[in-house]
Design a protein that fits this description.
By secondary structure, the chain is an alpha/beta fold. The chain has 3 helices and 3 strands, in the order H-E-H-E-E-H. Strands 1-2-3 form a 3-stranded parallel beta sheet, with helices on one face.
């Protein structure tokens, strides 16, 4: 697209494996007055960026349900400064269970293994906004 880092675009990368450090990193990007923030998965990155600014555009990736996470007002009309790409995987859980039932109609119990602390889990409680 014609962008060359260092010539006509600068990338200010902030990364951490410590979820509790995300708000400080987002605040640092806001303080630098970046033109936009790309918030990669997990959803905590987009939530930290949204909490840090209401004016800088934020683009998220892989927020399973951005409405439930409080990132956007609705899928059709996100509003505000946050938009992104949604992963519909969690919304397919019911369909997957239906298919398992069709394949194994005699199965009375179906086991599900998930990490409820992962905001992407369809079984995780809605986070505090």
């Amino acid at each position: 697209m014609g962008y060359t880092e260092g010539r006509n675009v600068a990338i200010a990368l902030r990364a951490t494996a410590q979820i509790d450090q995300l708000p400080a990193l987002a605040a640092e990007l806001v303080q630098r007055q970046v033109a936009a923030i790309y918030a990669a998965a997990p959803a905590n990155t987009a939530r930290a960026a949204k909490a840090a600014t209401a004016t800088i555009p934020i683009v998220f990736l892989n927020a399973v349900d951005p409405v439930r996470l409080g990132l956007v007002a609705s899928i059709v009309r996100p509003g505000g400064n946050v938009t992104g790409v949604m992963n519909y995987v969690s919304t397919l859980v019911a369909k997957r269970l239906e298919q398992v039932r069709e394949l194994m109609p005699q199965g009375a119990t179906i086991g599900i293994l998930t990490n409820p602390d992962n905001l992407a889990s369809p079984f995780a409680p809605a986070p505090d906004r």
